[in-house]
Amino acid sequence: MNAKKLLIILSTTFLTVLLALLIVINIEPTNTGSNKNTNAQPTPTPPTIQKNQKTNYLSHGPAIAPYIYSDGTVKYLTKSGGNLFQSNLLGNNIAKISNASLNDLTTATWSYNGQKIIATFSERRDSIKYLFNYDTGETMPFSNNISKITFSPNTDKIAYLTYDKINKSGGIFIANSDLSNAKKIFDTTITDWQIAWPAKDIIIIITSPSGLAQGAVYGINTQTGDYQILLSDLYGLNTTLSPDGARLIYSYTDAQGKNLKTYSMNIDGSNKYALPFSTISDKCIFSQDTRNIFCAVIKDIPPDSLLPDDYYQDAFKSRDDFVEYDLIKKESSRILFADDYTTNFDASNLLLTPEEDYLIFINRQDGLLYSLKL
């Protein structure tokens, strides 16, 4: 091969390589120096709320498991990523306060002092539960036999519902949060009880609320294990107990899951009467002295709805009126009505600040955490 042919071959090869490089450069996305995931979902923009407002958003994105400190500071977990944030009641200093990330978190329940959570995670079709200590970073898995868990309102104890499929035995137990010193207080093989520990000496268990089935509410003494049937044979039954365990608010429907009604009564069944408004009972919360309740009253219920099933399954969202009701005087007062604001509020996970000057809730319409001045 002479020098001329070699030069032509080398020149052709060089031009081919150069052309290929130019093509690659032109189709390769421009690198801006950012490592952001282009598939990441944007953070929802909080709604614009009218001035002279009574409400403030406390999160920039969907939140779960709010908790209020004694000074009124609110902390919560983000629904995406399970990051821990806190805010003041005006929402003007929202900040991340922990590097722990609880991915695939679906629900969480705080201990009385805000140190630990019972966290439920989604894993394929199953749910797994862990105890997580934010002070120490320690985690502890719960057995798959445990279906429901809740914290004591004033100690580091838990109550849980368990069922052993092999031995076909189950019950409700009280134990330390690490499951030590467990004691059975109630025998049951029903696995879908909902369980709450709202007052020191009483645990409430309730059948899963449905407008297609009659429900029951039991009160169990945490010291003796004695129990009483508080309510039964009511469709769509749900209830909220006062902090002292002496009074409850309950809601129910007719056998078609319609005609929602809300009642108040003492836990012994006395002083029972209908409230002048209708809402699902877990959209109400008691004041500390149990004299007043603060409720988010459901509006715009679709006429063909099955209650409370369709509400819990997100078949519709409510536009709530917020009211305060004096259980002694039997008088209601307006806090905020749906027609007052352009933002629609469908309140869940209601909490009261220690001074009872703000109501904290998660808005099912957008998933954000809000404060409402009372």
Summarize the structure.
With 374 residues, the chain is mainly beta.
Poorly predicted regions are 1-44
Mean pLDDT: 87
Q: What is the terminal separation in angstroms?
A: 95 Å
**CATH architecture title of the largest domain:** 6 Propeller
Number of domains: 3
Which CATH top level class of the largest domain fits?
Answer: Mainly Beta
Structural class: mainly beta
Quaternary assembly: single chain
Beta-sheet strand percentage? Answer: 35-45%
Q: Could you give the order of strands across the largest sheet? A: 14-15-16-17-18-19-20
| Biggest sheet architecture | 7 strands, antiparallel
Q: Describe the global form.
A: globular
Amount of helix:
under 10%
CATH topology of the largest domain, by name, is Neuraminidase
Total count of helical runs of at least 4 residues = 2
What is the helix/strand order?
A: HEEEEEEEEEEEEEEEEEEEEEEHEEEEE
> How big is the Rg?
27 Å
- The CATH superfamily of the largest domain bears the name TolB, C-terminal domain
